[in-house]
UniProtKB/TrEMBL annotation:
<comment type="function">
    <text>Transfers a succinyl group from succinyl-CoA to L-homoserine, forming succinyl-L-homoserine.</text>
</comment>
<dbReference type="GO" id="GO:0009086">
    <property type="term" value="P:methionine biosynthetic process"/>
</dbReference>
<dbReference type="InterPro" id="IPR029058">
    <property type="entry name" value="AB_hydrolase_fold"/>
</dbReference>
<feature type="active site">
    <location>
        <position position="317"/>
    </location>
</feature>
<feature type="domain" description="AB hydrolase-1">
    <location>
        <begin position="45"/>
        <end position="355"/>
    </location>
</feature>
<dbReference type="GO" id="GO:0005737">
    <property type="term" value="C:cytoplasm"/>
</dbReference>
<feature type="active site" description="Nucleophile">
    <location>
        <position position="151"/>
    </location>
</feature>
<feature type="site" description="Important for acyl-CoA specificity">
    <location>
        <position position="319"/>
    </location>
</feature>
<keyword id="KW-0808">Transferase</keyword>
<dbReference type="GO" id="GO:0004414">
    <property type="term" value="F:homoserine O-acetyltransferase activity"/>
</dbReference>
<keyword id="KW-0012">Acyltransferase</keyword>
<dbReference type="GO" id="GO:0009092">
    <property type="term" value="P:homoserine metabolic process"/>
</dbReference>
<protein>
    <recommendedName>
        <fullName>Homoserine O-succinyltransferase</fullName>
        <ecNumber>2.3.1.46</ecNumber>
    </recommendedName>
</protein>
<keyword id="KW-0963">Cytoplasm</keyword>
<keyword id="KW-0486">Methionine biosynthesis</keyword>
<feature type="active site">
    <location>
        <position position="350"/>
    </location>
</feature>
<keyword id="KW-0028">Amino-acid biosynthesis</keyword>
């Protein structure tokens, strides 16, 4: 297995406006992206990786000046890894509205000269796919070998097959769903309310006040984090372990290790993530529903897809359950599409798609080996 050199983030500026599904327009914007591996002579070995809620364009490798800043899917992507960058040219774009360098709420609104804040237009999964397609246009990539994503990234991969069916040959949809359930929308709404009711939120224009709604962001992350873990994994990791030797009989103090862990995760998140971005991205999750325009019929919605599919789910993922992945598989089979499905028996809940699991990684490795064989045929 060869070692990759340090990676570097790149940026692409667009003067031409991006029309959004809401009817608004994003004009004059910049997108951050990273690439790994080498584009072959026929430009046919490119794989687009789509990021989920709190991730970025930094999907693999490390930066020369930040050796501890490892890409969020580095265990899956790199030389000799399941998505092998010795064979494939991998691209990951930070979506507009995010807070990792692409134009988002923290950036200056050209119409006002002040940060967008809550005036940043609402973006959808479809808008992100359109933005990613523009990056590929600039890179001269007309057809992708594959599009891959987990969770919200999987929704983008699915949307790619409908928006640009001819521009991709394979879709890898991992730990995802064709839309959010009412329960999922409910979790997102509670998280958003925690943010917007924080006194430091200031209607989304907190930048002008020099503050951050950290309390709201912390609670939002704590709620989200609970839903990403399974009951079994939480029980195995923390159980009812106490933080101290004795109970303090306090309603305010931290008593249990799980409380301590959640507060730590929430505090850490509130240090680096933007509150307006959290609102935008959870809304994009809520809105995604390709069957909406087909009277709720997913089979009709997916009839446009031409790609071959790998769909992966995890048994203890209750936020994006295997049942939801099977809905996608059934709708594809109704259209006689080529689909492989793997349901991985893993204890980690939704977070399993980011973790090391030999069977999961084996499935992804085998699928990409087949794509590589196709390219060389």
């Amino acid at each position: 297995m060869s070692m990759p050199g340090p990676v570097s983030a790149q940026q692409m500026h667009f003067a031409e406006p991006l029309p959004l599904r809401s009817g608004a327009v994003l004009r004059d914007y910049t997108l951050m992206y990273e690439t790994y591996g080498t584009l072959d002579a026929t430009r046919s070995n490119a794989v687009l990786v789509c990021h989920a809620l709190n991730a970025s364009h930094h999907v693999a490798g490390v930066y020369a000046d930040q050796p501890k800043n490892v890409g969020w899917w580095d265990n899956l992507i790199g030389p000799g890894k399941p998505l092998d960058t010795d064979r494939f040219f991998v691209i990951c774009v930070n979506n507009p509205g995010s807070c990792f360098g692409s134009t988002g709420p923290m950036h200056v609104n050209p119409d006002t000269g002040r940060p967008y804040g809550s005036d940043f237009p609402v973006v959808t999964v479809e808008d992100w796919v359109d933005a990613q397609a523009r990056v590929l246009d600039r890179l001269g990539i007309t057809q992708l070998a594959a599009v891959m994503g987990g969770s919200l990234g999987g929704m983008q991969a699915l949307s790619w097959t409908l928006q640009y069916p001819e521009r991709m040959r394979h879709a890898l949809v991992i730990a995802s769903a064709p839309n959010l359930s009412a329960q999922n929308i409910a979790f997102n709404e509670v998280a958003r309310r925690a943010i917007v009711t924080d006194p430091e939120f200031h209607g989304g224009h907190f930048y002008a006040h020099g503050v951050v709604p950290k309390r709201g962001l912390t609670v939002a992350r704590m709620i989200g984090h609970i839903t990403y873990l399974s009951d079994d994994s939480m029980e195995a990791k923390f159980g009812r372990s106490l933080r101290a030797a004795e109970l303090s009989y306090s309603t305010q103090e931290i008593e249990f290790q799980i409380e301590s862990y959640l507060r730590y995760q929430g505090d850490k998140f509130s240090e680096y993530f933007d509150a307006n971005t959290y609102l935008l991205i959870t809304r994009a999750l809520d809105y995604f529903d390709p069957a909406r325009d087909y009277e709720g019929n997913l089979s009709s919605a997916l009839s446009r897809a031409q790609a071959k599919f790998l769909v992966v789910s995890f048994t203890t993922d209750w936020r994006f359950s295997p049942l939801r992945s099977r809905e996608i598989v059934k709708a594809l089979l109704d259209n006689r599409r080529d689909v492989s499905y793997a349901e991985i028996d893993a204890p980690h809940g939704h977070d399993a798609f980011l973790l090391d699991d030999a069977r999961y990684h084996g499935v992804v490795r085998a699928y990409y080996a087949n794509i590589a064989a196709e390219l060389n045929a």
